[in-house]
TrEMBL record:
InterPro entries: HicB-like (IPR031807), TA_system_antitoxin (IPR051404), TTHA1013/TTHA0281-like (IPR035069)
A Pfam family annotated for this UniProt entry: HicB_lk_antitox
Protein name in UniProt: Predicted nuclease of the RNAse H fold, HicB family
Lineage: Bacteria, Pseudomonadati, Pseudomonadota, Alphaproteobacteria, Hyphomicrobiales
All residue ranges annotated as the HicB-like antitoxin of toxin-antitoxin system domain in the record: 3-127
CDD domains given in the database record: RHH_NikR_HicB-like
Top-rank lineage group of the source organism: Bacteria
PANTHER family: ANTITOXIN HICB, UPF0150 PROTEIN SSL0259
Length: 133
């Protein structure tokens, strides 16, 4: 699931991120890439808080609906748009069975060791990066 985000940049400021379908959810970053990464975390945290409070989670609208919404005209003005994935952290790990080529598995294990990570942590980190990009 992805939510449309507006990214604004004013002179002498960071990139600001807002989500038209998730009022109050905002983030920022020094670069667009950092703003998007921070937006993923902000969206996940905001949705987690809504769920914890028993509030409904707003459904994401598609790009055309956001762009044609007259109530968002001012927010869209000079904004870049992007789709930010909702990556929910459930707070619990689940064991899975995955098949990989042996050579790829060896490369994964070597890269994980170089970074001081477990295989699972390395794969989770790589998956998050792939989902966000």
């Amino acid at each position: 699931m992805r939510y449309i985000a507006f990214i604004h940049k004013e002179p002498d400021s960071v990139y600001g991120v807002s989500f038209p379908d998730v009022p109050g959810c905002i983030s920022a970053g020094d670069t667009i890439d950092e703003a998007v990464r921070n937006g993923v975390e902000a969206l996940s945290g905001h949705i987690r808080m809504l769920e914890a409070d028993g509030d409904p989670v707003p459904a994401p609208r598609d790009f055309d609906a956001i762009m044609s919404d007259p109530d968002l005209a001012e927010d869209r003005d000079s904004a870049m748009t992007t789709a930010i994935p909702l990556v929910r952290d459930r707070g619990s790990n689940t064991r899975i069975n995955v098949s990989l080529d042996l050579g790829l598995l060896e490369a994964i294990d070597a890269a994980a060791r170089e970074r001081g990570q477990t295989r699972s942590a390395f794969l989770a980190s790589a998956a998050r990066r792939e989902i966000v990009d």
